[in-house]
Structure formats: C-alpha cells, structure tokens
Design a protein that fits this description.
CATH superfamily of the largest domain: Vaccinia Virus protein VP39
Radius of gyration: 20 Å
Number of strands: 16
Distance between the termini: 50 Å
CATH architecture of the largest domain: 3-Layer(aba) Sandwich
Shape: globular
Strand content: 25-35%
Oligomer: single chain
Number of domains: 2
Structural class: alpha/beta
Length: 308
C-alpha cells in the first residue's frame, strides 16, 4: 500500500459513492488483483457502517497511512456513521473502530430482504456479498420446489428460496449457531418457519437424515474451501457430488459453488461428470460487477447443473 495505491483507493471510494448504494454492496474489491498494492483489501458498504477488511498485515507506516486516509473522508456526508477496520490476518480478526461507536449487530438489506449480521466478533459477518446473484437466481427458481441447502451457514439461500415461494427448504450445517442466525433471518422477513428445517449436523455423518427428507428439486452446495477437521475441498467435494443421484428428483437441479482461487470451473464440471454423470452442465452464473477479477477462473464459481 504505497502512496499511489492509497490514492487509487481514495479515488475509487469517492467515485463509488457518487451514487450511494441503497442496499449493502462492496465498494472496493482489491482481492481480484485489478489494482496493484491493494490485493489484500476490501471495503463494504453496510448501510451506515463502512467495513474495511485487511487480509494481510501491512507495514506499520502503510497501516497508519491507510487509517489517516479513511478518517479524512467525510463519510457522514454519504450517510455513514461508523467506519470499522478488520484485521483478518490476525487469529481473532480484531476490529478497530475508526469512526463512530462499536456496532455488534446490524440489519442489512439485499434485494429487499433483511439479514442480521455480526460485526467485530467473528471473521465473517454472516452474508457473503459476492453470492448476491446466486441468491437472486435461487429466489427466481424456487417457486413450488423442495430445496436442500448444504453448508447452509446463516441460510441466505434459504431466505431467498422461501421468499421465492419454495415449498420447503432443508438447511444443513454443523455450526448450530449459524443456523440459529438463519432462523433470525427468516423471522426478519416474516417467513413461515414450518416450511424450513434446520439440521445442525456433520453432513458426512448424517446422510440418512438428509436423504429421508428428500428427494429434492434443487440442491445447493456452497462449502468452505477448507474447514479444519470437517471439509477439504479436493477430497470432500467429490463425496458430496456422488450422492446427488440419490438426493435429486428426476428433473432436479444443482447449484454447485466454489470460491477457491486455485481452482477453476473445470474442477466442478469434471467432478460432476465423473461422480454424477446423469447431470449436465447448464450455465455459470455471473458475478456481481463490484467483484472484478483479473482472472475470471479465480473468482466465485456458481455453476448450474440439471438432470437429463
């Protein structure tokens, strides 16, 4: 983060705020490697809160220069009351509050839907903003469908599916706290919780529970790239894919997602061809324009597969 890089960031932020986002959006995505010197930095607009995330520790002088640049922006004129700087490279992802008071929880909106997120307590706030088009797609497709949401986290896909008229959604995630937040998100949107099931289990020890609630018209797979002791992308994704024939209806659809920059879409296409040959690749969903990447294969991959 040399002075030129910080000047680029300053200009980009002011340009992005020429039209203040009405909903939650990423303002700057350095991780796509389009701006030299800013590869480890992102800035999110959280409707009153600006969250700046650092993924690698900078030199002390660079960090101080970044802070000075951030506090010199007249954020209040754009409607922001708080600026937070999250040090994602630290074990606890420590957050500094550069402007305004500490905000522990915040309700944000995306596509008119409401989500409760955490700030300053966890590495991830509770909603991955790059998956916005994926949630939109699920909402458009879900009417009348039975949906399985694997690695559900805080149930963003489930909220989108129920809003889109899904008959029922089964959410599975081993993190019961995340599923509890998923219930909160459904309640925030006035959803009928009798249409939603929450399974707080390890998927690989719970196939019977998942299968017994099927078959499903739509299966969503959005795992972490790596989760110590529970998921390794290169080994465990294949274990999920080979179960798809037992989970899907005859006309079923799969949304398979992956956000590891080391693997392109062929990792998923080849995996499905090998493990679930009855499925055919249909399309890759576009990523939101605020997530540019120097290599499209490095960004989020959200691929649709259909039976037949």
């Amino acid at each position: 983060m040399n002075p030129d890089a910080l000047a680029t960031l300053h200009t980009h932020l002011l340009n992005a705020l020429q039209t203040v986002p009405a909903e939650t959006r990423r303002l700057f995505h350095g991780r796509g490697r389009c701006w030299p010197g800013l590869e480890q930095l992102t800035v999110d607009w959280l409707q009153g809160v600006v969250l700046v995330s650092l993924f690698k520790e900078p030199e002390a002088a660079e960090l101080e220069a970044l802070k000075q640049m951030l506090v010199q922006i007249d954020w209040r004129s754009f409607g922001a009351h708080t600026v937070a700087l999250q040090h994602r490279y630290l074990p606890q992802s420590t957050t500094e509050w550069l402007l305004g008071e500490v905000v522990d929880e915040l309700t944000i909106t995306e596509g008119g839907l409401r989500y409760l997120i955490d700030l300053g307590k966890k590495q991830n706030s509770g909603l991955f903003l790059d998956m916005r088009y994926g949630r939109n797609w699920v909402r458009e497709q879900a009417h009348g469908l039975r949906v399985l949401n694997l690695f559900a986290y805080t149930c963003g896909f489930s909220v989108a599916a129920i809003e889109g008229g899904a008959e029922h959604v089964v959410n599975l995630d081993m993190a019961r706290g995340a599923l509890s937040r998923g219930r909160d998100n459904h309640r925030l949107n006035g959803h009928d919780l009798s249409k939603v099931t929450f399974l707080g289990h390890d998927l690989f020890k719970s196939w019977a529970k998942v299968t017994n609630s099927g078959p499903y018209d739509l299966v969503i797979i959005d795992p972490p790239s790596f989760q110590k002791g529970s998921f390794l992308l290169t080994k465990d994704y294949q274990r999920v894919l080979r179960r798809l024939p037992d989970l899907l209806t005859a006309q079923g659809t799969v949304l398979a997602c992956m956000n590891d920059p080391a693997f392109g879409e062929d990792f998923l296409i080849d995996g499905v061809t090998r493990e679930a040959p009855g499925l055919r690749f249909d399309q890759r969903l576009e990523n939101p324009p605020e997530f540019p990447d120097i290599d499209p294969q490095s960004g989020l991959k959200a691929l649709v597969f259909r039976q037949g």
